[in-house]
Structure formats: C-alpha cells, structure tokens
C-alpha cells in the first residue's frame, strides 16, 4: 500500500484516447491498493498554440498574462483526465496549482517552487479518490498564476511527491527508460536499471532529454525515488537513485551526444588579464550559454581561444564575438557549425584511471579526429566533425562494453 | 469621469483581430478619462469545443470537472485581451473568477452569484490600469471553480458593475441594440432608445436574445443601468432602465416571435379535479417547459386541453402525453409542430385598453388565423401557422406604428 505519484507528459495526454489510457493506468494502480496522485502536462501542441496566440496580440507579451494563458493547457488536461477516471467508475478530483497552493516566487515563466499545501490532496486520498494535479503551474504570494518553465511538470510531480512523502515518483514517457546511448543510432543500446542522479544530470544536459534537470536535483535534495518508465507498457523502467545505491561496478554508464553545437575560435588573443573576460561578457549578456572553453598556452604574448555555443545561437554569437575581438585587439574569428559533442558519462570513472585513454584510442582507431576535449569528474567530452556523430556513439558504446549489464562486465574483466 | 463596465461576448473576442478591436475600445474609453473594467466570454466556438472533448472522455460528465474545463475558455480570453491592451501601451491586468472572489453557490453549470470582492479591482483602477475579468465563472466556498450557465458572462458583468457601483454596464453585441422587431424579417424595425426591464424580459424570453434574462433581473435589483450597444461602431444602443424612466407613451414597445413551438391538444379530458395536473406532471419531470395552456369550458363532463412546448422537445412531449392520456381516460392526442408564437409586448398596455382588439383585427385583415391566445399584463401572444410568422410580425409592426418613435406616435394620436 504505497503512495504513488505518476507524471504524464503532453504526448501521453495528447488525445482523448491517450487520456483514457492514462486513466486506465491510474485506476489499475489504485485497484492494486495504492494511493494515487497523477500530475499532467498540457496536451501535446497546446502550449505552442497558446504562445502563438499571445504572439499575435502582442509583440512583447507580458509574462504575467502569458502565464494566465499557458496555465489553461494543464487545466484542460486535469479536467479531462478526472472525467475519464470517473467514467471508469472511480472517484477522482482535479486540483489547479492554486488549489493545492503550489506556492512559487513571482518569476513568471520560470518560477521556483517554495511550498505545497498537501492537505486537500490528503483529504481526497483519505476517501479513496484519485487526485489529479495540474503540472507546470503555481501561484505566487499575490495570488497570481505562475508557470515553472518548459518541462516544469516533472518538477511539479517531484515537488508534490516530496510534500506528500510519496514512496515513488513515476515519470511516464514515450521511451522505456534511460539508455546507455540513443537507441535510434545505437542498436546495442541497453536500458539502464539504476542510474545515479549525477550521471542522470550529465546525460540530461547532454541531450538525453528524459528528465528535466531541475526535477532531478529537486528529487535528490528531498530524497524522492524517481522511476522513469514507459506509458505504453507495464515493464520496469529506469530508477534514478542517490549515488551510493547505484554503484554496480560500471566505469562508464552511458554515451551521450549533442548536435546543437557550434565552435568559435578567436585568433591571436592578447595574453593580458581581462581580455578573455571581455570576450565572454557580451555573450553572457545575450544569454548565450558558452560550453567547452579551450585556451592554449600563449606564445609571443598571444594565444588562440576556442569555445562552443548552441548552434541555434551561433549567428548571434559570431556577431558579438567579432565585435568584441575588434575592440580587444584580437585577430580573426573562425566559426564552424558542423561539429558535435560526444561524451562518456560515469560516476565510476572517479576511481578508475584510463577512461580517457580508452575513449581517445577508440576514436582514433575509428579514424575520428578529436577537435576539442573537456573533462569533468564524471564526464569526458570530445568535440568532433558532426558527420561522425553516430559512428562515435557506436564506437564508444562498444569500447566500454555498454551492451552488457554492469555485473557481467565486471566478471568478464576480472 | 465615470466607472464603466464593458462586457464583450464570444463573437466580439472570436479572433485575434477582434480581440484587438475590443482592446482599442477599452483603451479609447480609458483615454476619455473613465475607469474601465472589461468582462469577456470565451472565444466563439471554444465552449462547444471543450464540451465535445468532455463528451468524448465521459458518457455522464461530472459537473464539477466540466466547470474546470469550461473555465479555461474565459481564461484564454482575458489573458489575450490584457496582452493586447498592454501592447497598445496601457496598463492592464486580468482576473479570474477566484481572483476577484466571484463567490457562488456550488450548483456547477448554473451557479448563482453570492458576492464579489471588489478590492483587487479597485486597486488596479486606482493606479489607472484597465481591469479584465473572466465572465461566466466563479468560485464556491470550497474553492472549486463554478460556472454560471450559458450567457452567464452578462450576469458576471452586471454583478461586477453592481459590486463596484459602476455608472453603467455596457453589453456589447453584434447588433445595434434592441429593436421593435427582428430587423431580418421586418425592414421597418426601429432601434429602441430606452426600454423598461419588464418589457426586455418579455422580449428576451420570446426569442429576442440580446440579453440574458437573469442578468436583466439582477441589473434591476441592484439598479445597474444597462446599455446594449454594437461592438462594431460607437453609436448609442438601447438602454434598459426601470419602468418609470422608460415611459415614453408607447403602448406597444415591440413585436417578438418564437418558432421553437409545437402545439399539442388532448381531446375529451374528463372534467374532474387532478386530471390536468396528472397530464402535466410527466412533462415537468422531464424538464419540458410548457408555455401557453388553454382549456375551454367543459361540455358533457369532457373538455379539450391545448398547450405548447418547445418544438425541439415535441417528440418526447407527445410520447409522454399519449401515455398520460391513456392512463387518465382521455381521448386522442393531436400534435402540430408547424406553429409559431407571435407576441406584442409593452408596459403601456397596462393602462391602455384595446390593444388585443387592435392585434386581432390586424391579424384578421391579413388573413392570419389565430389558433391560441394567451395574455399577461404586458404581453399578448397568439399561436399561428408558422408559415405566416414573418407576415404577422410585419402586420403587427405596422398596426402599432412601431416604426415611429414613441413621441411622434403620441402626437399623431392626440
């Protein structure tokens, strides 16, 4: 008899038939004797439709009013889901953000959750009802509707689970769980049974978009076990757990890639304090996220600085960097949008030397030239020509034998 | 410097362009120095779209959840309108039903307003902002969203105007105001400048659907002047006022018709107490609204009873009446769906005899046979063959010289 929070995204409630499927799953869980709270997003496409309407009436839409507009998406979903559950003969009740007091700050469009009033939810659960809560939305201290930003429904679900001390927060998606690599380009990719939060965060930030980053951080902070699973079948998915529980002997847990990458090189940067800062300030002011940064040792008082930015922001970044380079007395700016970042991630590499060597060797044997390298405690990333992205993922997946479960891997190596 | 409440229906906010028009009008009123509160409905078609979704997930949709669903329609409208007003450089703020505490009972789908918290509205007006309020919706004592029923946005506007002691509640529609007859079938129809509430109620209940009935009652109870006007131009519309202010000497104010009428006659009804009650009880239980009822003096202990029902409910009414007639020992049931009701309405007829005679004479001279007659203090209705509906309206409009303003009419008669 557990208390289970189930979160369904926009695709899972994207049509009337899919809403009925979600209802069936919630009812089945309830019939097993569990208390069930369902958190849902807006129907797929709805948020975009609403944003388009806003853009049609306003050139610079006010964020407070945009939140009023967007919050209707989830409101439609909770009403339809509650109706569908009731149609199956089970008690259900919908709650909007303000009705369960999902209190946030007033940062419209990217509000942060400050607290939840669990009592209305507990009252409904106490009489056996299924609770349906609108994800993505909250209410600030003035009673204004706020939204948590894209993917915020994951965060809502985790916050609700934390407030209720739920036994698990199940995140339903259209994939079976978290994989060792993108199954679309690596057929040997294997579903990971348990992954530690740090690894999950690295994979998420690298484009393996199963879970919203903030929700993973939030879950770990409040010790909410996360279970990422498929909305199409009942099989186990992947559990995201604190690091100590995840240690299964794997050095590398997964291979990720990110194609939304462009590389800029500023030539002949004067090697004097403040120059590099002056180069990156305009990018920061323009909210351009600079990722890998490489600066070689200076020669003759000059050095080259190379960095990556999201490819979608490359044009803007180039213009800003060229202007800054002129002002700072640097040389030419070279740009290359045909690059990708490939990374291996694993909490186990902290205690295992030789991972980088194994990665570079595998890439070299496959004839893939490494343009930039960047490392963190649990990740090694290489920027390469993006034509070799899929090949690199498969080569690295093989090199670290990720198709074998961690236990087997250890045996074969010992 | 007045406080003006403006209400716009679904057609007036039916597209992005139309929402911008509404914004322009609100801003223009504000620029004249007035305080402006706008109440809006859902965009045309939206409520039907949502109800269709509800019907797809549930065979007997729960009314509480349907209200959660429907309330999104007005929420989208207020957000878009506030955005459009702000885009024109004016401060605007949207409020949902619960944010201005439009408190209602818990009769979901047809809730009654119990009170409003005017303070948040007054605060926004005090700093010069235009207030945009969601019509149609309220909140009950448990914090659940309620809706007021179809056309409820008129009622919201009047209730807001009453709570704010507004100088006027302007109801914007796609017609210029209230006419002496339907301009589509009577080209001489004249816009009425001032109409008393009782007349308005009779006209509304007879199919001249400019104003929702409950909102007129509410406006008169709280002495809110109503101004029905066109959303397409700035010309004056029709004012709905207490009777004493409306007296302009007109005996008849307008001619109305209703084609949603069917006539049933039960033959040979035993003239014993309780028989007629037994005949109408099944209709009442089935929520069928019986309108005109005629019973002639009995002969030989038997009488015929004739009555009208909405044509849309005729089949059901016939079946129920036939069953009742058998049980009560009555004769055959005759039904005729090809009838219409034509009425003349006017508060002035209370003090003016001869109106009925003038009506019957005009109908007779036009060769229109009157099948049933029913009268109230300020209305005389005739049921006729529905093929003569338009002719009857024009004939009566001429007979009472409704194309002339009341002042002129009086002069010509004196």
Gist?
Chain A is of the alpha/beta class.
Describe the structure.
The structure is a homodimer of 414-residue chains. The first copy, chain A, is an alpha/beta fold. The first copy, chain A, has two domains: 172 residues, Carbamate kinase (3-Layer(aba) Sandwich); 159 residues, 2-Layer Sandwich (VC0802-like), CATH 3.30.2130. Chain A has an eight-stranded mixed β-sheet, with helices on both faces. In chain A, strands 14-15-13-16-18-17 form a six-stranded antiparallel β-sheet. In chain A, helix 2 packs antiparallel against helix 3 and helix 5 packs parallel to helix 7. The C terminus of chain A is likely disordered.
Find the CATH topology of the largest domain in chain A: Carbamate kinase
CA gyration radius of chain A, whole angstroms: 24 Å
The percent range for strand residues of chain A is 25-35%
Principal-axes shape call of chain A: globular
Q: How many individual domains of chain A? A: 2
**Count of discrete alpha- or pi-helical segments spanning 4 or more residues of chain A:** 13
**Ends apart, CA distance between termini of chain A:** 42 Å
What oligomeric state is this? Answer: homodimer
Name the poorly predicted regions of chain A. 408-414
Q: From the 3D coordinates, which CATH architecture of the largest domain in chain A would you assign? A: 3-Layer(aba) Sandwich
Class based on secondary structure composition and strand pairing of chain A: alpha/beta
Strands of chain A, count: 18
Largest interface, counted with CB-CB under 8 A?
A: A-B, 41 and 41 residues
**Helix amount of chain A, in percent?**
25-40%
Look at the structure and give the CATH class of the largest domain in chain A: Alpha Beta
Instruction: Assign the CATH superfamily of the largest domain in chain A.
Output: Acetylglutamate kinase-like
Strand order of the largest sheet of chain A: 3-6-2-1-9-11-12-10
Average pLDDT number of chain A: 90
Biggest sheet descriptor of chain A: 8 strands, mixed
């Amino acid at each position: 008899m557990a208390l289970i929070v189930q979160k369904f995204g926009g695709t899972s409630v994207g049509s009337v038939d899919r809403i009925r499927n979600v209802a069936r799953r919630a009812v089945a869980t309830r019939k097993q004797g569990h208390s069930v709270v369902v958190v849902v997003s807006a129907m797929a496409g709805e948020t975009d439709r609403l944003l388009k309407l806003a853009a049609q009436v306003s050139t610079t839409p006010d964020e407070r009013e945009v939140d009023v507009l967007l919050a209707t998406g989830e409101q439609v979903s909770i009403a339809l889901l509650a109706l569908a559950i009731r149609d199956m003969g089970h008690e259900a009740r919908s709650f909007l953000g303000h009705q369960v007091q999902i209190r946030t700050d007033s940062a419209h469009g990217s509000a942060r959750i400050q607290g939840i009033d669990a009592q209305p939810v507990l009252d409904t659960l106490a009489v056996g009802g299924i609770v349906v809560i609108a994800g993505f939305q909250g209410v600030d201290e003035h009673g204004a509707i706020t939204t948590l930003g894209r993917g915020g429904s994951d965060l809502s679900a985790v916050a609700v689970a934390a407030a209720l001390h739920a036994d698990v927060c199940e995140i339903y998606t259209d994939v079976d769980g978290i994989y060792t690599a993108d199954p679309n380009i690596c057929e040997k990719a294997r579903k990971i049974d348990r992954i530690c939060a740090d690894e999950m965060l690295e994979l998420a930030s690298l484009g393996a978009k199963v879970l919203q980053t903030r929700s993973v951080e939030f879950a770990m902070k409040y010790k909410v076990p996360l279970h990422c699973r498929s909305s199409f079948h009942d099989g186990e998915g992947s559990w995201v757990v604190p690091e100590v529980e995840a240690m299964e002997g794997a050095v590398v847990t997964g291979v990720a890639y990110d194609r939304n990458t462009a590389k800029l090189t500023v030539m002949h940067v004067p090697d004097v304090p403040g120059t590099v800062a002056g180069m990156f300030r305009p990018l920061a002011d323009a909210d351009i996220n600079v990722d890998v940064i490489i600066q070689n040792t200076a020669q003759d008082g000059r050095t080259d600085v190379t960095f990556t930015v999201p490819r979608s922001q490359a044009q803007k970044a180039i213009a800003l960097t060229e202007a800054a380079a002129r002002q700072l007395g640097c040389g030419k700016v070279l740009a290359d949008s045909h690059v990708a970042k490939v990374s291996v991630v694993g909490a186990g590499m902290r205690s295992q030397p030789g991972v980088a060597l194994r990665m570079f060797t595998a890439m070299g044997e496959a004839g893939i030239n490494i343009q930039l390298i960047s490392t963190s405690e649990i990740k090694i990333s290489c920027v390469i020509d993006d034509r070799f992205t899929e090949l690199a993922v498969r080569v690295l997946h093989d090199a670290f034998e990720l198709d074998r479960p961690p236990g087997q891997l250890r045996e074969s190596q010992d």
